[in-house]
Amino acid sequence: MTAFAEGFQALVQRDLTWTLMPTVATVIIVAWIIRSTLHLRKIPGPWWAPYTRLWLFRALYSERCADVYLQVNRKYGPLVRIGPNHLITNDPLTFRKILGVQSKYTRGPWFDALRLDPHNANLITERHRQKHDALRAKMAPGYQGKDIPQMEHAIDRNLLTWLDYIQKHAVTTQERHVAFDMARSIQWLLFDMVCHLCLGHPLGFIDQHEDCYGFQNVLETRLPIVEKFAIFTEVNTWIKMISHIPIVRRVLPSPKDKDGIGAIMGVAQKTVNARIAQGIPPKHNETMLDSWLRNGVDGSLAVTEVTIALFAGSDTTATSIRALLLHIITNPLVYKRLTDEIRNAATSTPIITERETKSLPYLQACILEGLRIFPPITALRERVVPPGGDTLNGVYVPEGTNIGLNLPGLLRNEVFGPDVDVFRPERWLEATAEQRQRMDRVHELMFNWGSTRCLGIRLAVMMMGKVVVEVLRRWDVVALRPQRPWRSRCHGIFLQRDFDVRVVDMEGTVR
Ligand code: HEM
Q1: How far apart are alpha carbons 176 and 167 in whole angstroms?
Q2: Domain assignment present for 19
Q3: CATH number for the domain including 373?
Q4: Verdict on whether the full-model pTM lies above 0.90
């Protein structure tokens, strides 16, 4: 072949390639659009959601995903398609089916993003059913207080330190006007309470009343990023693959860090080492950590578990207390009835007992209603449909589909009455026995169900009751800026700040 002919042939081939490329690309895109449209086609949802994960990304980016999830189920029904392989449900029966003990559903790949170490799961991130159940059996007695009779005492001690702090620094008098940021302060209280339960001592957050370990700062800066990456689950696999590279490992939290999550791990590591060296104290005289170690939790896993407990237990409960207080102090009818109940009750001093909080019906109704109107977790915590698929709300859903659990949507179920969007604790007291049972059966799902049911329910409810009672029986609390009482950003959990209040003495002169 002549040089001319060869050159001509190459030109034709190149031109052909250039002509074919857009055609091939178009065929791939069309095939992908058709596939995405047909897959899960019987399930309604926003028209553009099936094609990418951008609908989910946009919901998270808005920082108000709780509202977005609530509205999407209201608009399209109990089972809605919000991504290529992602559904969302607010249906109590579906929740129960997916989470039940006998269920074959598993935690989805989303949970990998919550791991502190990409190679090792902990109780909250373990996706393998048997491994999870084995670990849970070792950890549950500690969390539930069965091994720790001192649990309530530890809570009371920290609460007293916190109340003393308020009395000294936060109460407004005629001479001193204080804008007290309840959001931050409650966070410090909860960090110390949960750390005390885990390790046997507080971390000093209440005394210093600041972010001593930069823990909160790390949460506030990293959580919004982690939350968004978590929906691109492939990223977790890549991180796992490259996490052996030293420079990448340096980004992950380590007990050697001076601040942030790593610093907390460092504190936990020291206590774990000391416990292992000196031997675990006798049963019934211990911390959660002692209980876990005695039950066979490995030392390095225990370090991670303490850190995770601090995160899982403190943030959720702090948000619940803040939201409850906000709804009480901005609602005169509730405020009056609750303070009357609390101030007229003959209960122990200086701190009400857990048992006594249970005997205050209006307080209990407020706690239930606060959790219902403002659940502290909005992350979808997706579960994966088991092999063989399943039928949900009358529609076949193929195996491998991710089902998101919409807590804000669940808790506005019609079972709670026609005014579900209103904070009205009375609904819990007015309900007939049969209605109340139906309400309870939906409400209890907010702590999950079955083998991943929250292990901190008793703690959370106890802490909420005690804090509300002890604040409102000492002082009156007023929102400083009723037109914008706080800054609350929703990232699966909530980041809240600037909840400035005026705390005034009940017998004081300022009111
Ligand atoms: C109002 C406060 C709280 C709420 C609403 C809440 C809610 C939840 C939910 C929904 C889960 C299930 C996560 C999943 O999808 O798998 C969970 C799990 C868990 N929670 Fe809580 N929680 C609260 C407070 C606490 C506290 C105070 C602690 C302990 C200090 C705690 C410890 C745990 C643990 C260890 C798990 C994992 C259980 C397992 O996987 O077996 N929680 N919580």
Answers
A1: 12
A2: no
A3: 1.10.630.10
A4: yes
Which residues does a 6 A CB cutoff place in the pocket of ligand 1? 123-124, 136, 143, 194, 309, 312-313, 316-317, 320, 376-377, 381, 446-448, 452, 454-456, 459-460
- 8 A C-beta contact, residue 160 and residue 351: yes
Question: pLDDT tens per residue, the chain (511 residues)?
Answer: 566 677 667 666 767 777 778 888 888 888 878 877 777 889 999 999 999 999 999 999 999 999 999 999 999 999 999 999 999 999 999 999 999 999 999 999 999 988 877 778 899 999 999 999 999 999 999 998 776 778 899 999 999 999 999 999 999 998 899 999 999 999 999 999 999 999 999 999 999 999 988 888 888 888 888 888 888 887 777 777 777 777 766 677 788 887 888 888 888 899 889 888 887 766 666 789 999 999 999 988 999 899 888 888 899 999 999 999 999 999 999 999 999 999 999 999 999 999 999 999 999 999 999 999 999 999 999 999 999 999 999 999 999 999 999 999 999 999 999 999 999 999 999 999 999 999 999 999 999 999 999 999 999 999 999 999 999 999 999 999 999 999 999 999 999 999 999 999 876 444 3
Whether 490 has a binding-site annotation, put simply, is no
Could you tell me if 273 and 82 are in contact, meaning their C-beta atoms sit under 8 angstroms apart? no
Give the residue, out of 89, 454, 467, 493, with the most ligand 1 atoms within 8 A of its beta carbon, to mutate for a pocket test: 454
In a domain, 328, yes or no: yes
Task: From the CA of 316, give the closest atom in ligand 1.
Answer: 2
Cα separation, 510 vs 339, in Å, equals 18
Centre of ligand 1 from the C-alpha of residue 391, in Å: 28
366 CB neighbour count, 10 Å cutoff: 27
When divided into structural domains, the chain yields a total of 1
* Residue 26 falls inside a structural domain: no
Looking from the CA of residue 194, the nearest atom of ligand 1 is 30
Phi-psi region of 345 (alpha: psi -120 to 50; beta: other; left: phi over 0): beta
Domain that holds residue 66: 39-508
Q: Whose CA is nearest to atom 22 of ligand 1?
A: 454
* Contact (CB, 8 A) for 398 and 385: yes
Q: Which atom of ligand 1 is nearest to the CA of 107?
A: 16
Is residue 492, in this structure, part of any structural domain at all? yes
User: Which residue do the tokens 């948000």 mark?
Assistant: 319
How far, in whole angstroms, is CA 362 from its chain's centroid? 26
Using the mean position of ligand 1's atoms as its centre, give its distance from the Cα of residue 456 in Å: 6
